[in-house]
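Sample entry (173 residues):
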Amino acid sequence: MDFVQTRVVTVGPAAGRSDLYCPNCGANNADDATRCVNCGNTLQKIETPGVDVPPPGVSGAGFAPAGASGGAVPNIPNYLVQSILLTIACFFLSFFAFFFPILGVIPGIVAIVYGSQVNGKVAGANYTGARESSRLAKIWCWVTFAVVVLEIIIIVIFILLFIVALVASAGSS
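Predicted structure, serialized as tokens:
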């Protein structure tokens, strides 16, 4: 009856050396042994493929996204900063313009949603979807910007009307 040798490969400081253990008695044998030094069983050499495992922290040791070819990842803008700032500006200006606050905030929220989808789609190697989300985020940022400009125009008109009313009331007294 032939027994198959058991090979334990160590990783770390003792790497490069392997120990042969007898499957019958578990004794440690030399690398080139054909018989176990303890029980005399025949050791049969079996070659197993080695696996190269890079140490932690080595560049390129992580997993690539599905479908990634190892090339450069395109830089697709997500417009998150712009959409957040415009949404905040639109929210605060709407109170001064006596404008319904939600009307101005809705396009800003839509821009934030589309902008937040961009990075996830890039990470999933869905570059076409990321470009489309980026395009829609940009469009909704411009819509939110138009609402902010409209609110500023309304505020300026109210201020001018207030000044004209003060001048008219001062002139009639």
